[in-house]
Amino acid sequence: MSPEDERLLHAAIELAVGARNAGNPPFGSLLVGPDGEVLAREHNTSVTDSDITAHPELKLARWAARELDPATAAGTTMYTSCQPCGMCAGAIERSGLGRVVFALSTEQVTALKPPATGPAVRLEGPALFDEASAAVAGYY
Fold first, then answer.
1. pLDDT (tens digit, 9 = 90+) per residue, 10-22?
2. N or C terminus: fewer CB in 10 A for the chain?
């Protein structure tokens, strides 16, 4: 990791502190263009926006998909205070961002949280393969 990577990770962590101070979960991210310019900054606003999807990584991935051409997106680096969750990782992949640098891993963040409570979501499937695959076949 370069000194510049560390500097930008510090900036992401500062955004996380700001999110926490505003009453939100402590997560922050920034997106840096191929030339090293910071293109956008976000922090978690899931509490203050009453939006469970208001993760900074997701907001930046959506911004990049709208505002950047594919070549520019591929040359970007997202710096984020914690490893992106599954939702955010999927959005980052679909937006075409080139690189993600994170401070804390999912395992490290999980170790800092209290144990999860409540029932787990039950998933059922796959089912109705013929009908479902007909809707998808040929799209990609």
1. 999 999 999 999 9
2. C
pTM above 0.70, yes or no: yes
| Annotated active-site residue in 4, 6, 57, 107 | 57
57 is catalytic: yes
CB atoms within 10 A of CB 15: 22
Closest CA to 60 of 36, 26, 84, 34: 84
C-alpha to C-alpha distance for 77 and 120, rounded to whole angstroms: 34
How buried is residue 84: exposed, middle or buried, by Cβ count under 10 Å (0-12/13-18/19+)? buried
Q: What pLDDT digit, counting tens, does each position of 66-121 carry?
A: 999 999 999 999 999 999 999 999 999 999 999 999 999 999 999 999 988 888 89
User: Pseudo-torsion of CA 5, 13, 99, 24, nearest 10°?
Assistant: -170
